[in-house]
Amino acid sequence: MPFSALGLSPALIHSATAMGFVAPTPIQEAAIPAILRGADVVGSAQTGSGKTAAFALPLLQRLHAGSPHTPRRVRALVLVPTRELAAQVGEVVRSLAQHLPQPVKVAVVFGGVSINPQMMGLRGGADVVVATPGRLLDLVEHNALQLANVNLLVLDEADRLLDLGFAEELQRTLALLPQQRQNLFFSATFPAAVQTLAEGLLTDPVRVAVADTPANEPSIAQRAIAVDASRRTQLLRHLVQEHQWSRVLVFVATQYAAEHVAEKLYKAGIFATPFHGGLSQGARKQVLQEFKDDRWQVVVTTDLAARGIDIAQLPAVVNYDLPRSAVDYVHRIGRTGRAGESGVAVSFVTADAEAHFRLIEKRQHLSLPREQIPGFEPTEVPPEATAASTGGIKGKRPSKKDKLRAAAAAAQAAKGQD
Ligand code: AMP
Q1: Does domain 219-371 have CATH number 1.10.3720.10?
Q2: Are 124 and 51 in contact (CB under 8 A)?
Protein backbone atom coordinates (compact mmCIF):
# COMPACT_ATOMS: atom_id res chain seq x y z
CA MET A 1 0.00 0.00 0.00
CA PRO A 2 1.42 3.43 -0.90
CA PHE A 3 1.44 6.39 1.54
CA SER A 4 -1.05 8.14 -0.75
CA ALA A 5 -3.71 5.56 0.14
CA LEU A 6 -3.68 6.53 3.83
CA GLY A 7 -5.37 9.91 3.50
CA LEU A 8 -2.28 12.01 4.16
CA SER A 9 -1.73 15.38 2.52
CA PRO A 10 0.71 15.63 -0.41
CA ALA A 11 3.05 17.82 1.70
CA LEU A 12 3.35 15.11 4.35
CA ILE A 13 3.83 12.39 1.75
CA HIS A 14 6.55 14.55 0.24
CA SER A 15 8.31 14.77 3.63
CA ALA A 16 8.00 11.04 4.24
CA THR A 17 9.46 10.33 0.80
CA ALA A 18 12.25 12.82 1.42
CA MET A 19 13.11 10.83 4.57
CA GLY A 20 13.46 7.72 2.42
CA PHE A 21 10.14 6.12 3.40
CA VAL A 22 8.95 4.36 0.28
CA ALA A 23 5.90 2.60 1.69
CA PRO A 24 4.23 2.67 5.11
CA THR A 25 5.29 0.10 7.69
CA PRO A 26 2.50 -2.17 9.04
CA ILE A 27 1.93 0.00 12.11
CA GLN A 28 1.70 3.10 9.93
CA GLU A 29 -0.79 1.39 7.64
CA ALA A 30 -2.97 0.46 10.58
CA ALA A 31 -2.66 3.56 12.75
CA ILE A 32 -2.61 6.50 10.33
CA PRO A 33 -6.17 6.20 8.91
CA ALA A 34 -7.59 5.63 12.41
CA ILE A 35 -5.79 8.66 13.84
CA LEU A 36 -6.87 10.80 10.91
CA ARG A 37 -10.48 9.79 11.63
CA GLY A 38 -10.02 11.19 15.13
CA ALA A 39 -10.13 7.83 16.93
CA ASP A 40 -8.20 7.04 20.08
CA VAL A 41 -5.54 4.47 19.28
CA VAL A 42 -3.68 1.96 21.39
CA GLY A 43 -0.64 0.56 19.67
CA SER A 44 1.48 -2.34 20.69
CA ALA A 45 4.71 -1.32 19.05
CA GLN A 46 8.42 -1.28 19.55
CA THR A 47 10.85 1.37 18.55
CA GLY A 48 12.00 0.15 15.15
CA SER A 49 8.48 -0.48 13.87
CA GLY A 50 8.10 3.03 12.46
CA LYS A 51 5.75 4.03 15.26
CA THR A 52 7.06 7.59 15.55
CA ALA A 53 5.99 8.47 12.01
CA ALA A 54 2.80 6.44 12.61
CA PHE A 55 1.67 9.08 15.09
CA ALA A 56 3.69 12.08 13.87
CA LEU A 57 2.28 12.14 10.32
CA PRO A 58 -1.43 12.18 11.27
CA LEU A 59 -0.65 14.45 14.23
CA LEU A 60 0.76 17.03 11.85
CA GLN A 61 -2.14 16.66 9.46
CA ARG A 62 -4.72 17.16 12.21
CA LEU A 63 -2.80 20.11 13.57
CA HIS A 64 -2.73 21.64 10.17
CA ALA A 65 -6.47 21.16 9.71
CA GLY A 66 -7.21 23.17 12.88
CA SER A 67 -7.16 26.95 12.88
CA PRO A 68 -3.75 28.38 13.79
CA HIS A 69 -3.57 30.42 16.99
CA THR A 70 -1.60 33.56 17.56
CA PRO A 71 0.35 33.36 19.74
CA ARG A 72 0.79 29.65 19.24
CA ARG A 73 -0.92 27.39 21.74
CA VAL A 74 0.13 23.84 22.39
CA ARG A 75 -2.29 21.62 20.53
CA ALA A 76 -0.37 18.36 20.51
CA LEU A 77 1.58 16.95 23.43
CA VAL A 78 3.87 13.94 23.13
CA LEU A 79 5.07 12.46 26.41
CA VAL A 80 8.14 10.24 26.31
CA PRO A 81 10.21 8.60 29.03
CA THR A 82 13.75 9.75 28.24
CA ARG A 83 15.67 12.75 27.01
CA GLU A 84 17.11 10.78 24.13
CA LEU A 85 13.70 9.71 22.93
CA ALA A 86 12.38 13.27 23.31
CA ALA A 87 15.17 14.57 21.08
CA GLN A 88 14.64 11.80 18.57
CA VAL A 89 10.86 12.18 18.36
CA GLY A 90 11.19 15.97 18.12
CA GLU A 91 13.56 15.57 15.21
CA VAL A 92 11.18 13.23 13.36
CA VAL A 93 8.21 15.59 13.87
CA ARG A 94 10.26 18.55 12.62
CA SER A 95 11.51 16.66 9.57
CA LEU A 96 8.03 15.50 8.67
CA ALA A 97 6.67 19.04 9.06
CA GLN A 98 9.23 20.66 6.79
CA HIS A 99 7.13 20.75 3.61
CA LEU A 100 3.91 21.93 5.23
CA PRO A 101 2.70 25.29 3.90
CA GLN A 102 2.45 26.76 7.42
CA PRO A 103 5.47 26.32 9.69
CA VAL A 104 4.94 24.15 12.73
CA LYS A 105 6.80 25.00 15.90
CA VAL A 106 7.97 21.94 17.77
CA ALA A 107 9.38 22.39 21.29
CA VAL A 108 11.40 19.58 22.84
CA VAL A 109 11.79 19.73 26.61
CA PHE A 110 13.45 17.34 29.02
CA GLY A 111 15.10 17.32 32.40
CA GLY A 112 18.76 17.08 33.29
CA VAL A 113 19.66 20.32 31.51
CA SER A 114 19.07 23.95 32.40
CA ILE A 115 15.42 24.98 32.21
CA ASN A 116 16.14 28.55 31.04
CA PRO A 117 16.85 27.89 27.35
CA GLN A 118 13.72 25.75 27.24
CA MET A 119 11.69 28.57 28.76
CA MET A 120 13.12 30.97 26.18
CA GLY A 121 12.31 28.48 23.44
CA LEU A 122 8.69 28.43 24.52
CA ARG A 123 8.28 32.19 24.21
CA GLY A 124 5.65 32.85 21.59
CA GLY A 125 4.18 29.41 22.28
CA ALA A 126 4.57 26.16 20.37
CA ASP A 127 2.27 23.96 18.32
CA VAL A 128 3.71 20.63 19.37
CA VAL A 129 5.53 19.86 22.60
CA VAL A 130 7.57 16.71 23.02
CA ALA A 131 8.42 16.30 26.69
CA THR A 132 9.51 14.13 29.54
CA PRO A 133 6.87 14.41 32.28
CA GLY A 134 8.87 15.97 35.12
CA ARG A 135 10.27 18.86 33.09
CA LEU A 136 6.91 19.47 31.44
CA LEU A 137 5.34 20.06 34.85
CA ASP A 138 8.24 22.29 35.90
CA LEU A 139 7.62 24.42 32.83
CA VAL A 140 3.89 24.59 33.55
CA GLU A 141 4.69 25.69 37.10
CA HIS A 142 6.96 28.40 35.71
CA ASN A 143 4.09 29.54 33.47
CA ALA A 144 6.29 28.86 30.46
CA LEU A 145 3.53 26.87 28.81
CA GLN A 146 -0.03 25.91 29.36
CA LEU A 147 -1.87 22.82 28.30
CA ALA A 148 -5.50 23.95 28.15
CA ASN A 149 -5.58 23.76 24.34
CA VAL A 150 -4.09 20.32 23.87
CA ASN A 151 -6.44 18.30 21.73
CA LEU A 152 -4.06 15.47 20.90
CA LEU A 153 -2.08 13.56 23.49
CA VAL A 154 0.49 10.90 22.65
CA LEU A 155 1.96 8.64 25.31
CA ASP A 156 4.99 7.04 23.75
CA GLU A 157 6.59 4.02 25.45
CA ALA A 158 3.96 4.08 28.18
CA ASP A 159 5.44 1.02 29.86
CA ARG A 160 8.78 2.74 30.21
CA LEU A 161 7.11 5.90 31.53
CA LEU A 162 5.66 3.81 34.34
CA ASP A 163 8.88 1.83 34.86
CA LEU A 164 10.72 5.08 35.41
CA GLY A 165 8.27 6.10 38.11
CA PHE A 166 6.38 8.77 36.16
CA ALA A 167 2.89 7.56 37.16
CA GLU A 168 2.25 10.51 39.44
CA GLU A 169 3.55 13.08 36.96
CA LEU A 170 1.35 11.53 34.28
CA GLN A 171 -1.77 11.86 36.42
CA ARG A 172 -0.91 15.47 37.26
CA THR A 173 -0.38 16.21 33.57
CA LEU A 174 -3.64 14.56 32.53
CA ALA A 175 -5.49 16.74 35.03
CA LEU A 176 -4.22 19.82 33.19
CA LEU A 177 -5.52 18.72 29.78
CA PRO A 178 -8.97 19.39 28.37
CA GLN A 179 -11.37 16.46 28.70
CA GLN A 180 -12.18 16.58 25.01
CA ARG A 181 -9.14 15.31 23.19
CA GLN A 182 -7.75 12.49 21.11
CA ASN A 183 -5.41 10.05 22.85
CA LEU A 184 -2.75 7.88 21.27
CA PHE A 185 -1.10 5.30 23.45
CA PHE A 186 1.97 3.31 22.44
CA SER A 187 3.71 0.69 24.48
CA ALA A 188 5.99 -2.22 23.76
CA THR A 189 4.50 -4.28 26.57
CA PHE A 190 1.18 -4.29 28.38
CA PRO A 191 1.60 -5.41 31.98
CA ALA A 192 -1.35 -4.73 34.34
CA ALA A 193 -0.31 -1.17 35.30
CA VAL A 194 0.01 -0.16 31.66
CA GLN A 195 -3.38 -1.66 30.81
CA THR A 196 -5.00 0.21 33.69
CA LEU A 197 -3.44 3.46 32.52
CA ALA A 198 -4.66 2.81 28.96
CA GLU A 199 -8.17 1.97 30.10
CA GLY A 200 -8.41 5.15 32.14
CA LEU A 201 -7.22 7.25 29.25
CA LEU A 202 -8.74 5.90 26.06
CA THR A 203 -12.26 5.98 24.74
CA ASP A 204 -13.27 3.16 22.47
CA PRO A 205 -9.74 2.86 21.07
CA VAL A 206 -8.73 1.30 17.79
CA ARG A 207 -6.16 -1.34 18.56
CA VAL A 208 -3.15 -1.64 16.33
CA ALA A 209 -0.40 -4.13 16.81
CA VAL A 210 2.62 -5.04 14.81
CA ALA A 211 2.95 -8.73 14.24
CA ASP A 212 5.03 -9.44 17.28
CA THR A 213 7.68 -8.21 19.63
CA PRO A 214 11.22 -8.19 18.19
CA ALA A 215 12.08 -11.05 20.51
CA ASN A 216 9.99 -13.30 18.31
CA GLU A 217 10.85 -11.79 14.99
CA PRO A 218 12.96 -13.98 12.78
CA SER A 219 15.16 -11.03 11.81
CA ILE A 220 16.89 -11.20 15.22
CA ALA A 221 18.94 -14.29 15.82
CA GLN A 222 19.19 -14.91 19.54
CA ARG A 223 22.16 -16.76 21.00
CA ALA A 224 23.11 -17.72 24.53
CA ILE A 225 26.74 -18.46 25.26
CA ALA A 226 27.80 -20.16 28.48
CA VAL A 227 30.96 -18.52 29.80
CA ASP A 228 32.76 -17.90 33.08
CA ALA A 229 32.19 -14.40 34.45
CA SER A 230 35.91 -13.64 34.41
CA ARG A 231 36.29 -14.50 30.71
CA ARG A 232 33.48 -12.34 29.35
CA THR A 233 35.60 -9.40 28.21
CA GLN A 234 37.96 -11.69 26.31
CA LEU A 235 35.04 -13.54 24.78
CA LEU A 236 33.49 -10.25 23.75
CA ARG A 237 36.69 -9.19 22.09
CA HIS A 238 36.92 -12.55 20.33
CA LEU A 239 33.33 -12.29 19.01
CA VAL A 240 33.72 -8.69 17.85
CA GLN A 241 36.84 -9.64 15.91
CA GLU A 242 35.59 -12.97 14.61
CA HIS A 243 32.26 -11.63 13.32
CA GLN A 244 33.69 -8.28 12.25
CA TRP A 245 30.55 -6.58 13.56
CA SER A 246 30.61 -3.01 12.33
CA ARG A 247 28.74 -1.75 15.42
CA VAL A 248 27.98 -3.48 18.68
CA LEU A 249 25.93 -2.33 21.62
CA VAL A 250 27.03 -4.11 24.78
CA PHE A 251 24.79 -4.03 27.85
CA VAL A 252 26.22 -4.17 31.35
CA ALA A 253 24.63 -3.80 34.77
CA THR A 254 26.42 -0.75 36.18
CA GLN A 255 28.07 2.48 35.17
CA TYR A 256 31.30 1.17 36.61
CA ALA A 257 31.12 -1.93 34.42
CA ALA A 258 30.42 0.23 31.35
CA GLU A 259 33.60 2.22 32.03
CA HIS A 260 35.64 -0.84 32.92
CA VAL A 261 34.66 -3.05 29.99
CA ALA A 262 34.98 -0.20 27.48
CA GLU A 263 38.45 0.60 28.77
CA LYS A 264 39.60 -3.01 28.56
CA LEU A 265 38.38 -3.31 25.00
CA TYR A 266 39.94 0.00 24.06
CA LYS A 267 43.28 -1.10 25.48
CA ALA A 268 42.94 -4.30 23.45
CA GLY A 269 42.70 -2.23 20.28
CA ILE A 270 38.92 -2.09 19.80
CA PHE A 271 37.28 1.32 19.49
CA ALA A 272 34.98 1.05 22.49
CA THR A 273 33.46 3.74 24.68
CA PRO A 274 31.04 3.82 27.64
CA PHE A 275 27.53 5.31 27.64
CA HIS A 276 25.56 5.77 30.84
CA GLY A 277 23.60 8.16 32.99
CA GLY A 278 26.74 9.36 34.78
CA LEU A 279 27.86 11.16 31.62
CA SER A 280 26.70 14.69 30.96
CA GLN A 281 23.90 15.20 28.50
CA GLY A 282 26.39 16.68 26.04
CA ALA A 283 28.74 13.71 26.35
CA ARG A 284 25.89 11.25 25.84
CA LYS A 285 24.73 13.05 22.74
CA GLN A 286 28.26 13.06 21.41
CA VAL A 287 28.75 9.34 22.00
CA LEU A 288 25.54 8.51 20.13
CA GLN A 289 26.47 10.76 17.25
CA GLU A 290 29.98 9.31 17.06
CA PHE A 291 28.56 5.79 17.17
CA LYS A 292 26.30 6.64 14.24
CA ASP A 293 29.28 8.21 12.45
CA ASP A 294 31.39 5.03 12.90
CA ARG A 295 33.85 6.65 15.27
CA TRP A 296 33.13 3.84 17.75
CA GLN A 297 32.75 0.17 16.97
CA VAL A 298 31.51 -0.79 20.42
CA VAL A 299 29.40 1.18 22.88
CA VAL A 300 29.19 -0.33 26.34
CA THR A 301 26.05 0.86 28.04
CA THR A 302 23.74 0.49 30.98
CA ASP A 303 20.02 0.06 30.32
CA LEU A 304 19.91 3.76 29.50
CA ALA A 305 20.22 2.84 25.81
CA ALA A 306 17.85 -0.11 25.92
CA ARG A 307 14.92 1.89 24.69
CA GLY A 308 14.14 4.44 22.17
CA ILE A 309 17.56 4.96 20.72
CA ASP A 310 17.44 4.69 17.00
CA ILE A 311 20.71 3.48 15.57
CA ALA A 312 20.12 2.12 12.12
CA GLN A 313 22.34 -0.77 11.10
CA LEU A 314 23.23 -2.15 14.46
CA PRO A 315 24.13 -5.72 13.60
CA ALA A 316 24.77 -6.96 17.13
CA VAL A 317 23.66 -6.51 20.70
CA VAL A 318 25.47 -8.30 23.51
CA ASN A 319 24.09 -8.88 26.98
CA TYR A 320 27.39 -8.92 28.86
CA ASP A 321 25.35 -8.74 32.05
CA LEU A 322 21.83 -10.09 31.74
CA PRO A 323 18.92 -7.66 31.97
CA ARG A 324 16.93 -7.58 35.19
CA SER A 325 13.65 -8.56 33.56
CA ALA A 326 12.22 -10.22 30.49
CA VAL A 327 10.76 -6.87 29.45
CA ASP A 328 14.21 -5.28 29.53
CA TYR A 329 15.50 -8.23 27.50
CA VAL A 330 12.99 -7.45 24.76
CA HIS A 331 13.96 -3.80 24.76
CA ARG A 332 17.65 -4.49 24.69
CA ILE A 333 17.58 -6.93 21.82
CA GLY A 334 15.10 -4.72 19.96
CA ARG A 335 18.03 -2.31 19.35
CA THR A 336 19.17 -4.62 16.59
CA GLY A 337 17.27 -6.07 13.63
CA ARG A 338 15.50 -2.79 13.01
CA ALA A 339 13.52 -1.69 9.98
CA GLY A 340 13.80 -5.08 8.37
CA GLU A 341 17.55 -5.56 8.80
CA SER A 342 18.85 -8.71 10.39
CA GLY A 343 20.66 -8.69 13.68
CA VAL A 344 22.08 -10.93 16.34
CA ALA A 345 21.49 -10.71 20.08
CA VAL A 346 24.03 -12.59 22.15
CA SER A 347 23.57 -13.22 25.88
CA PHE A 348 26.47 -14.24 28.06
CA VAL A 349 25.17 -16.74 30.57
CA THR A 350 27.46 -17.25 33.54
CA ALA A 351 26.88 -20.06 36.02
CA ASP A 352 25.44 -17.59 38.52
CA ALA A 353 23.04 -16.17 35.98
CA GLU A 354 21.82 -19.47 34.52
CA ALA A 355 18.63 -19.65 36.61
CA HIS A 356 17.87 -16.00 35.93
CA PHE A 357 18.25 -16.51 32.19
CA ARG A 358 15.93 -19.51 32.34
CA LEU A 359 13.25 -17.27 33.81
CA ILE A 360 13.74 -14.76 31.02
CA GLU A 361 13.46 -17.56 28.47
CA LYS A 362 10.29 -18.81 30.12
CA ARG A 363 8.69 -15.39 29.99
CA GLN A 364 9.72 -15.00 26.36
CA HIS A 365 8.67 -18.52 25.41
CA LEU A 366 12.20 -19.14 24.29
CA SER A 367 14.58 -21.99 24.70
CA LEU A 368 18.06 -21.24 23.50
CA PRO A 369 20.81 -23.82 23.43
CA ARG A 370 23.79 -22.82 25.62
CA GLU A 371 26.64 -22.52 23.17
CA GLN A 372 30.24 -23.00 24.17
CA ILE A 373 32.95 -21.19 22.24
CA PRO A 374 36.21 -23.11 21.86
CA GLY A 375 38.79 -21.58 24.20
CA PHE A 376 36.08 -20.09 26.41
CA GLU A 377 34.39 -23.22 27.76
CA PRO A 378 32.93 -22.50 31.20
CA THR A 379 34.45 -24.11 34.28
CA GLU A 380 32.08 -22.70 36.90
CA VAL A 381 29.04 -24.69 38.01
CA PRO A 382 25.61 -23.15 38.65
CA PRO A 383 24.89 -22.73 42.37
CA GLU A 384 22.15 -24.80 44.01
CA ALA A 385 19.82 -21.91 44.76
CA THR A 386 17.88 -20.69 41.76
CA ALA A 387 16.88 -17.14 40.97
CA ALA A 388 13.28 -18.28 41.31
CA SER A 389 13.78 -19.30 44.93
CA THR A 390 15.56 -16.08 45.77
CA GLY A 391 13.00 -13.79 44.24
CA GLY A 392 14.68 -13.61 40.85
CA ILE A 393 13.33 -11.15 38.37
CA LYS A 394 9.79 -11.19 39.60
CA GLY A 395 10.00 -8.59 42.35
CA LYS A 396 11.40 -5.55 40.60
CA ARG A 397 13.75 -3.73 42.92
CA PRO A 398 13.44 0.03 43.00
CA SER A 399 15.99 1.79 40.82
CA LYS A 400 18.21 4.57 42.10
CA LYS A 401 15.82 7.02 40.49
CA ASP A 402 12.82 5.38 42.23
CA LYS A 403 14.65 5.71 45.55
CA LEU A 404 15.42 9.37 44.90
CA ARG A 405 11.81 10.03 44.00
CA ALA A 406 10.61 8.20 47.12
CA ALA A 407 13.04 10.21 49.28
CA ALA A 408 11.90 13.46 47.66
CA ALA A 409 8.23 12.52 48.21
CA ALA A 410 8.94 11.65 51.86
CA ALA A 411 10.78 14.95 52.37
CA GLN A 412 7.87 16.80 50.78
CA ALA A 413 5.39 15.00 53.01
CA ALA A 414 7.49 15.76 56.09
CA LYS A 415 7.59 19.42 55.07
CA GLY A 416 3.81 19.40 54.73
CA GLN A 417 3.50 18.16 58.30
CA ASP A 418 5.69 20.87 59.79
P1 AMP B 1 10.69 4.16 14.99
O2 AMP B 1 10.00 2.85 15.29
O3 AMP B 1 9.72 5.27 14.88
O4 AMP B 1 11.80 4.43 15.97
O5 AMP B 1 11.36 4.04 13.54
C6 AMP B 1 12.41 3.16 13.29
C7 AMP B 1 13.16 3.47 12.02
O8 AMP B 1 12.35 3.18 10.89
C9 AMP B 1 13.59 4.92 11.89
O10 AMP B 1 14.94 4.94 11.47
C11 AMP B 1 12.70 5.49 10.83
O12 AMP B 1 13.35 6.50 10.09
C13 AMP B 1 12.42 4.27 9.97
N14 AMP B 1 11.11 4.32 9.29
C15 AMP B 1 9.94 4.76 9.80
N16 AMP B 1 8.95 4.63 8.88
C17 AMP B 1 9.50 4.08 7.80
C18 AMP B 1 8.99 3.69 6.49
N19 AMP B 1 7.71 3.83 6.17
N20 AMP B 1 9.86 3.16 5.62
C21 AMP B 1 11.17 3.00 5.95
N22 AMP B 1 11.72 3.34 7.14
C23 AMP B 1 10.89 3.87 8.05
Answers
A1: no
A2: no
